[in-house]
Amino acid sequence: MLLIKGGRVIDPAEGRDETGSIVIRDGRVADYLAGPDAPKTFDGAVIDAAGKWVLPGLIDMHVHLRDPGYEWKEDIRSGTAAAASGGFTSVVCMANTRPVNDHVAVTRYIREKAASAGSAEVFPVAAVTRGQKGEGMTDFSELFEAGAVAFSDDGVPIRSSLMLRRALEYARAFDFLLLDHAEDPELCDGGAANEGWTAHRLGLPGIPAAAEEIAISRDILLARFTGGRIHIQHVSTKTGVDLIRLAKGAGVNVTCETAPHYFTLTEAAIEGYDTNAKMNPPLRGEVDRMAILEGIADGTIDAIASDHAPHDAYVKRCEFTAAANGIIGLETALPLSMALLAGGGVTPLRLADLLSAAPARILGLSRKGTLGAGADADVTIVDPEVQWEFRESDVRSKSRNTPFFGWTMTGRAVAVIRGGRITHSLLEGTAADA
Ligand SMILES: [Zn+2]
Question: Which residue, of 38, 230, 278, 344, has the fewest CB within 10 Å?
Answer without folding.
Answer: 344
